[in-house]
Design goal:
This protein has 14 helices and no strands. It has helices spanning 2-20, 22-29, 33-55, 61-78, 84-96, 100-115, 121-143, 148-172, 174-181, 196-217, 222-243, 247-250, 259-264, 266-275. The relative contact order is 0.11.
Length: 280
């Protein structure tokens, strides 16, 4: 029966998440169990596309992304896919009525990684929207059970959270993106000669995103709040470490937080998300 295949598909999405991201794995685990499968499916979908453009250097990435895109839309149309990740994702898209424009924007940003190397302000904003903000909005649809009024009220905060996570990732991976992939995301910044002032300007933008995002997290339904807040403070901890790292050092190594430190943040996240919340 298809229920068995759907279960296997969800388990594969969970394995993908656990393999690639400690922060999101912990965050998703702390969500209400009813949210696990759909959020794992969104992460699995996003991760596969990201791997195509970031990791499959010995293959025709453009062809692979085109095929992945076609398979995505076919899965949504048919209600099934022999790709287990896409099978789980299409189910989430249908159940929560996720706007297809969000998916389209995400896939467009992935295609930008195949060609763009230096971003201007407009293309940077376009990329952030498609690669990160729309992912936050897909997850928001799940968190609010598709309730349009609550969704509309939290759109700015969800976008800010996605943007904050993505910009922190850019700073964390600055060395690998520039030296390994030839990418420079931040507009107007010459990474060959980037300065403390450049770094501080970027950090100001991220701090504003984090502040707005926190307001939204406290308004989420209780079943989503602890898990999302845990991912938030894991990234906030990483951001604080980045702020204390010199511009020169960031071009030499990847900045990271050990897994045991991330896990130590869970009790704090529970207290702050539960007892200092603004809504229930």
């Amino acid at each position: 029966m298809k229920e068995t295949y759907d279960q296997v598909s969800s388990e594969i999405c969970k394995s993908v998440t656990n393999k690639y991201s400690t922060s999101f794995s912990v965050g998703i685990y702390l969500l209400n169990r009813s949210l696990h499968c759909p959020i794992y499916s969104i992460y699995g979908f996003v991760r596969l596309a990201d791997e195509i453009v970031d990791s499959f250097h010995d293959f025709d990435k453009e062809k692979l992304l085109q095929q992945f895109t076609a398979d995505t839309w076919q899965a949504i149309e048919d209600g099934i896919s022999l790709n287990p990740v896409l099978n789980a994702f299409q189910s989430t898209v249908t159940q929560y009525e996720i706007d297809h424009e969000l998916i389209r924007s995400f896939l467009h940003s992935m295609s930008m990684d195949l060609g763009h190397r230096d971003y201007e302000e407009t293309t940077f904003e376009e990329y952030i929207w498609g690669s990160a903000e729309v992912v936050g909005l897909m997850c928001l649809k799940v968190f609010v059970d598709g309730k349009e009024e609550m969704y509309d009220a939290l759109v700015p905060e969800a976008r800010a959270l996605g943007a904050a996570f993505q910009k922190v990732n850019f700073l964390r991976d600055l060395h690998a993106d520039y030296k390994g992939l030839g990418r420079s995301y931040f507009p107007g910044v010459d990474l060959e000669n980037w300065t403390l002032r450049d770094k501080q300007e970027i950090e100001k933008s991220i701090a504003k995103d984090f502040a707005l995002a926190e307001e939204g997290i406290r308004k989420l339904p209780r079943k989503a709040r602890w898990g999302v807040y845990t991912a938030y403070i894991c990234y906030l901890k990483l951001f604080k470490k980045i702020r204390s790292t010199s511009a020169e050092q960031m071009m030499q190594r990847r900045i990271r937080i050990p897994n045991y430190r991330k896990l130590s943040l869970v009790p704090r996240a529970y207290f702050q998300a539960t007892f200092r919340s603004l809504s229930s």
